[in-house]
Amino acid sequence: MAQIRIIKKYPNRRLYDTEISSYITLEEVRQLVTDGEQFEVRDAKSGEDLTRSVLLQIISEHEEHGQPMFTTNLLSQVIRFYGDSLQGFMGSYLEKSLQVFLDQQHQFRSQLNNILGQTPWSMLNDMTERNVDLWKSLQQGFLTAAANSVQRAGPPGTPPPPGAKPKPDSKP
């Protein structure tokens, strides 16, 4: 298994790629993402993992220039999920939804390369129908998982179901 590439972030905000022994820019980190490289960004002093914050910084910079990918409404909706009981489901839901989109995009491109007697519009219609079906099943799966999670936990203040083991009381 290949080792994960380590990039150290110094207090002066410079990024040092330990694999090539050179300082790199945020744009070069973005290129690592585009190329599918596995890497971690670590604080040079504490060793703390800063990968997420650097990736968010790259997204933020790209959202400021050109045509943004995330609308104000979408960002507001994501912010509303912080602190919500379904916050834990949101990340995996978005990740799986994006993966379905990427899979469909790959399938669409490969089918366009092998048209063989079909018009692009009929292929697009067929793929749209399949995509809607996949989307509905993905949403239903998340809703079922969320409902099962809520059912098991029950509303706050309700007694546990019969036969459930009581939680140990942490108070002395």
Q: Would you write up a description of this structure?
A:
With 172 residues, the chain is an alpha+beta fold. The protein is 55% helix and 9% strand. The chain has helices spanning 26-34, 51-64, 72-81, 87-113, 120-153; strands at 5-9, 15-17, 22-24, 39-43. A 4-stranded mixed beta sheet has the order 3-2-1-4. A hairpin with a 4-residue loop joins strand 2 and strand 3. The longest helix has 34 residues, at 120-153. The radius of gyration is 23 Å and the shape is extended. The model has no long low-confidence stretch (mean pLDDT 84).
Summarize the structure.
By secondary structure, the protein is of the alpha+beta class. It is built from five helices and four strands; from the N terminus they run βββαβαααα.
Query: Percentage of helical residues?
Result: 40-55%
Largest sheet: 4 strands, mixed
Helix and strand content put the structural class at: alpha+beta
Number of alpha- plus pi-helical segments = 5
Beta-strand content estimate: 5-15%
Q: Quick one: how many beta strands?
A: 4
Q: What order do the strands of the largest sheet run in, or round the barrel if closed?
A: 3-2-1-4
